[in-house]
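Pasting as-is:
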Amino acid sequence: MIFMTKPFRFSRDTLAIRRLTFYNLEPGKVRQHGEILKDNGLT
């Protein structure tokens, strides 16, 4: 499952989005990976 935020001000002249990815490992257990993307998620 992937969640992405709306663009937010990362610095004075940069907008970014936050992407959280959740991976099912086993019943009742997940792994979360978080990223901040400054290119609107293109790469």
